[in-house]
Amino acid sequence: MTLDVFLQQLANGLMLGCLFALIAIGYTMVYGILRLINFAHGDIFMMAMYVAFFTITIFHIPWYISFIIVIVVTMLLGILTEKIAYKPLRKQNAPPISLLISAIGISYLMENVAIVLFTGRPKDFPQIPFFTSMTQLGPVRVQNLAIMVPFILIILLVVLLYLINNTKSGMAMRAVSRDLDTAQLMGIDVNKTISFTFAIGSALAAVGAIMWGMRYPQIQPLVGLTPGIKCFIAAVIGGIGNIKGAVIGGILLGLIETLIVAFFPGLSGYRDAFSFILLIIILLVKPNGLIGEKIADKV
User: Fold this and answer.
1) H/E element, 140
2) Do 50 and 219 form a contact (C-beta atoms < 8 A)?
3) Is residue 291 domain-resident?
4) Domain total for the chain?
5) Is 289 helix (H, G, I), strand (E, B) or coil?
6) Is residue 61 part of a domain?
7) CA 26 to chain centre
8) Residue 176 maps to a domain
């Protein structure tokens, strides 16, 4: 492999890793608050892609306005999912397994609703020249998207960490993540905090969905399945419950997947298997993830 090809694949892997990281943050935030794996997160990602498709292609709304609409609608969908699928079970002090089953159920519900509403026929995600045009960086020729995605991730990560560490809402999120019952006794509106967490995670999934659609421009009702699983793996690798860990895990997973296929093209059919192999290795060596902390399960 020449240096030019290596740099090209490195840029592709970094972009893919940043996309994984954007979506993985949503998983890790919800887990940090509720100790719940929100398996509907990948389907919220899928719904965001469909909203972008219809607002741009069908209603001809300018892309910069459409993206705002996508983020807002996806945030509302995340809040609605929490209110319908998780809040009633929390009120009844249901065991964690009930919440997990509810998460799986809402995931299948969204997928089947999408099949009924949008059919199973793949649709082409609208391509925006501002993002998809090519740029020459020395020996490497990449999409503008590959340059923008890492910067978008950094900006959103800085904003998110500031929100969590320097605002009252962030303080409430940190308190609830430590001890939900004690936070409630201290006067924190736990339901509002949880809804806020779902909204932020869904907004990041929406941004990831928009970027993903321009990189892999095909939508169908199961489009969120593989990214959802990969981003869950990324969150676990980094240390689920840790936002910085989700970013590290996502970037690491994207780079390893891309570079292994680049160095060993004959193994491209096993690309997804490498994600699970990496997950197993990390869990054997560091069961709590690369920078995760051991946290007692809530009962």
Assistant:
1) strand 140-143
2) yes
3) no
4) 1
5) coil
6) yes
7) 5
8) yes
Most confident listed range (138-142, 211-215, 266-270)? 211-215
Residue positions counted in the chain: 299
Residues 52, 54, 55, 57: is their CA dihedral positive or negative?
positive
Cβ neighbour number for residue 220 with a 10 Å cutoff? 18
Which positions ≥6 away from 66 have C-beta within 8 Å?
52, 55, 56
Calculated CA dihedral for residues 46, 234, 161, 154, nearest 10 degrees: -80
Task: Tell me the residue range of the domain where 236 lies.
Answer: 3-285
- Half-sphere CA count of 239, side-chain side, radius 13 A: 15
Contacts of 237 (CB under 8 A, 6+ apart): 245, 248, 249, 252, 253, 278, 279, 282, 289, 290
Q: Which residues contact 230 (CB under 8 A, 6 or more apart)?
A: 20, 253, 272, 275
In tens, the pLDDT along 157-202 reads 999 999 999 999 999 999 998 888 888 888 899 999 999 999 999 9
Cross-strand bridge partners of residue 141 = 136
What distance separates the 2 farthest-apart alpha carbons in the chain?
61
pLDDT tens column, 91-142: 888 888 888 899 999 999 999 999 999 998 999 999 998 888 888 877 778 8
Q: Does 200 map to a domain?
A: yes
CATH of the domain at 238: 1.10.3470
CA distance 53 to 103: 26
259 and 11 Cβ atoms separated by less than 8 Å: no
Q: Which structure tokens are listed for 250?
A: 């996502």
Q: Please, which residues bridge with residue 140 across strands?
A: 137
Cα–Cα distance measured from residue 158 to residue 93, given in angstroms and rounded to the nearest whole number: 35
Place of tokens 């719904």: 47
Instruction: Tell me the one-letter amino acid at 164.
Output: I
Q: Which residue is it, tokens 């398996």?
A: 39
